[in-house]
Write a structure and sequence with these properties.
The protein has 237 residues and is of the alpha+beta class. It contains 4 helices and 12 strands. Strands 3, 4, 5, 6, 7, 8, 9, 10, 11 and 12 form a 10-stranded mixed β-sheet that branches. A two-stranded antiparallel ribbon has the order 1-2. Strand 3 and strand 4 form a beta hairpin. The chain is elongated. The chain starts with a helix and ends with a strand.
Length: 237
């Protein structure tokens, strides 16, 4: 069974291929579904591919193939828009809200699971956390907890004393709360994201580096949102 967002995208791709013989671009899909970032489109396409509705054709631009449609396909997105239909919005860019069906973890194989690497997270000066899916990694299941997970590449050296180095891939369990002392993906003021240790100090929240060269930053509770917490990391030598 598809979510509403997955169904909307599938029918839009189907209509565009039927009309012009080529699948729409990611920008066209983003605009059609009123998304703020192409990362939301990547998550939806991954979910549709895993459920066997579409296939990505290798070595070709804009190459998506429809393998099947839902048994009870409703009117296409284009037709629905003509009746004043407004699709639900996926929060993309710096403040994504992936769901268990839209965000890989994807395929399990033996004692491993494939996770999407969704861009870079700063261990230093805050940068946008989730961008477009860059690639996927195979992760041992014993590194993951319950719930949803994704991976991010670390940029910077502010967490080196916690054993997190520039270039590491961190494994993040999606959540919106954390215990004081947890290392979290923290979204500051709605657009800057960083990997830091969270400390609760009265009514304030401190984002603490694990490198004496970086200062601890303190914010009011309404300025910081937890996007997930660290559960493991991968490193290549």
């Amino acid at each position: 069974m598809l979510t509403r967002k997955q169904h909307e995208l599938l029918m839009f791709i189907h209509e565009r291929i039927k009309e012009g013989g080529v699948s729409p671009s990611f920008d066209e899909m983003k605009e059609a579904l009123d998304l703020r970032s192409k990362s939301g489109i990547h998550r939806l396409i991954t979910a549709l591919e895993e459920r066997g509705f579409i296939r990505r054709l290798p070595h070709r631009a804009r190459a998506l193939e429809i393998l099947k449609l839902p048994d009870a396909a409703s009117p296409s997105l284009a037709m629905a828009r003509g009746r004043g239909f407004s699709p639900s919005v996926i929060e993309g860019g710096a403040q994504p809200k992936p769901t268990s069906r839209d965000l890989a973890p994807a395929r399990s194989a033996g004692d491993t699971m494939t996770l999407s690497v969704m861009g870079r997270i700063a261990a230093g000066t805050p940068i946008e956390a989730l961008q477009e899916e860059s690639h996927q990694v195979s992760v041992p299941l014993n590194l993951l907890g319950s719930g949803e997970h994704y991976a991010l590449e670390v940029k910077g050296d502010s967490m080196i004393e916690a054993g997190i180095l520039d270039g590491d891939t961190v494994l993040i369990q999606r959540c919106d709360t954390a215990t004081s002392g947890d290392i979290v993906v923290a979204l500051v003021d709605g657009y800057e994201a960083t990997l830091k240790r969270l400390r609760k100090k009265g009514d304030s929240i401190a984002l603490e580096a694990a490198n004496p060269a970086y200062e601890t930053r303190i914010f009011g509770p309404d300025r910081v949102k937890v996007q997930g917490k660290l559960v493991g990391l991968l490193r290549r030598y």
